[in-house]
Amino acid sequence: MRKVIVVGGGFAGVAAATALAEKGVQVDLLESRGSLGGRVYSTDNPSFPAPFDNGPHLLMGCYHETWKLLKRLGAPDTFHKIDPLNLSWLCPGGQKVSLQCAPLPAPLHLVWGLLTTNAFSWKEKVSLTKALLLFSKKPFSLNPEIKTVAQLLDFTHQGPQARERFWIPLCNAVMNVPVEMAPLAGFGEVLHRVFFGSRKDSSLVVAGKPLSDIGFKQTPAYLKKQDGAVHFHEGVQSFKVSKDSFEVLTRLGNTYTGDALIWAVPPSSLSALWPSDGWEKIKTLPQLGKSPIISVHLILSRSLFSEQLAGLSGGRFEWVFNRNANWGWKGGGQYLSLVASAAEPLAKQTEKELVDLAVKELKTRLPTSVTFEVLHAKATREMAATFIWTEETDRLRLSTETPYPHVRLAGDWTATGLPATIEGACLSGHTAAQKTWEHLNQTP
Ligand SMILES: Cc1cc2nc3c(=O)[nH]c(=O)nc-3n(C[C@H](O)[C@H](O)[C@H](O)COP(=O)(O)OP(=O)(O)OC[C@H]3O[C@@H](n4cnc5c(N)ncnc54)[C@H](O)[C@@H]3O)c2cc1C
What we know:
Elements: E1 3-7, H1 11-22, E2 26-30, E3 42-45, E4 48-53, E5 58-60, H2 64-72, E6 79-82, E7 86-90, E8 96-100, H3 108-116, H4 122-133, H5 149-155, H6 160-175, H7 184-195, E9 204-207, H8 219-224, E10 229-231, E11 236-241, E12 246-250, E13 255-256, E14 260-263, H9 267-273, H10 280-283, E15 291-300, E16 309-312, E17 319-322, H11 323-327, E18 334-340, H12 351-363, E19 374-386, H13 391-394, E20 407-409, H14 422-442
Parallel strand pairs: 1-2, 1-14, 2-10, 7-16, 14-20
Antiparallel strand pairs: 3-4, 5-9, 6-9, 7-8, 11-12, 12-13, 15-18, 15-19, 16-17, 17-18
Helix pairs in contact: 1-14, 2-14
Bound molecules: flavin-adenine dinucleotide.
C-alpha cells in the first residue's frame, strides 16, 4: 500500500488527506495542535457563558469542493442554506431593507430580487446589474486598465447604497482586503461562481453549530479505514528532501516518511521549514502578509431579530450572526456575533473599544424605541486570518507543484484563483491530492 504524509490539519490538509484515503492510500496527517480545523474553530472561556467562534464563517452554495469534503466525511448536514438568497440590512436610523430573491432558476432569481428590493434606488439597481453582468461569462470582458475592485466601482458608476450594502461588505468578506486593494480578477471569479451558476450557488450558508463541531471529528476514523491516522501535537520542526525521498521530524522527536508528502500549512511556516535548496520562491512567502478579522460576541437582554444573519449597512462591522437561530442557542436573551473583515484599522483597539464600537453600530441601526442591555461581551482577533491578496502579492502565490514531484503544496494561499476561504483551501487540498495520486501511479 502507498503511504502519503500530509502536514497541517486545516480544511486544505483534511481535504487532501481524505481524498487520498478515498482512493485507498494510507495517509498519516500531522497536526501541531490538539484538534483539526486550523483557522476554523470555536472555543469556550469561563468569562463568556456560551461557546464562541474565532470568527463567524459564512459559506456559500457555490463551495462545491467544501461540500464534497463534508459529504465524504459523512459529516451531518449541520448548515442553514438560505436558498433562494435572502438578506436584510440594518441601516443607520433603524430602517431595515432587504434583498429577497425568487425560487426561480438562476439568474432569474436574482433579477427578481433586484427588481423588487428596497435596498437600492432604481438608478443603482441598473448600474449594479450592469456591473454584475460583466462577470456572467468567461473570459470576463474587462477594460485591462481596471485592476482593483474600487476602480471597477468608479468605472461602472456605483452609487453609495450599492457600495455600502453590496460591494464593500461582499469584497471585505470574501477577499478580506479593502476594495482599493482587492484584485478585480479574483473578485470577478467569486462573482461568477456565486451569481452565474445555479440558484443554489448563490445561497448563503451558516453553520448550525459552533465551528469546532462541524465535521472534523470524523477524520481520524476515515483515515483509519486505510490504516492511516491523525497524529495530534505533531508539529513538524524540520524537513529533509532529496530527488526521490523526504523525511519530516516533529517536535515530539518522531520521524515520518512515505511515498509522497503534502504540505498544508500557512505560508510563513512553510517558508521557515523549507531547506536551503535554492528554491527562491519559497523564501518570498512571508511577503504575502497578514490581514486580520475581528469579531465581537454579545449576549443581549432581549431578542432583536430572528433571521440567521443580517448586514450592517455602512458599519465597520459588516455582518451580524444570530446564534439563537444559527445554533438554536437558548441561554436567555439574544446571542449575536458581529464580524469585521479587512480589519487592519481596528487591529490595535482594545477589547473594550471593539465591544463599544460593535454595540454602538448595532444600537444606531435599531429604531430608537428598541433598547437592550449587554449581559456578556467578548472580542476575538485573528491577526493572520488570511494573506493580503493584491495585484502585487498575486505573483507570490505558488501552485501545488514544488521542485520535487513527490512533494506538493496546499492551503488557501496557494494559486487557486480563489480568495483565502474555506473553498479555496478545499480546492487546493483536492488538487494536491489528485496530483499526488497521479504521481503515485507513475512511480513503481
Ligand atoms: C476569523 C476568520 C473568519 C473567516 N471567515 C471566513 C468565511 O466567512 N468564509 C470562508 O470561506 N473563509 C473564512 N475564513 C478563512 C478560512 O478560515 C481559511 O481560508 C481556511 O480555514 C484556511 O484553511 P487552510 O487549511 O488553508 O489553513 P489553516 O486552517 O491555517 O490550516 C493549517 C494547519 O496547519 C497546522 N500547522 C501549522 N504549522 C504546522 C507544522 N509545522 N506542523 C504541523 N501542523 C502545522 C495548523 O495548526 C493548522 O491546523 C476566515 C478566517 C478567519 C481566521
